[in-house]
Every structure is written in structure tokens, then in C-alpha cells.
Amino acid sequence: FPKKTCLAQYTQHELDLVAAQLNNRPRKTLKFKTPKEIIERGVALTD
């Protein structure tokens, strides 16, 4: 979404889909791992 977009016009389902896309996108700063992979690994280490 562009900056300053009012998110109230979108359903929770639509916002969840966008969040999933962002969390599953590899990042150069994470050595091409996804944020989801990093979070899951961190949670696994604390169990």
C-alpha cells in the first residue's frame, strides 16, 4: 500500500494476505532468508 493509505477500507483478510506476502519475501539484509524463517528459528531456540 502507498504511504498514508487508510487501511480501514480493507478487510482483515486482505491485510493478512499482504502481511503474509511481506513475511515470506527473502531479504538481502537477512542473507536472503525470509522474516518468517528468522522468527520461526528464534522461537524454536527458545522452546
TrEMBL record:
GO biological process assignments: transposition
Protein's recorded name: IS30 family transposase
Gene Ontology MF: a single term: transposase activity
UniProt-listed InterPro entries: Transposase-Integrase
GO cellular component, one term: cytosol
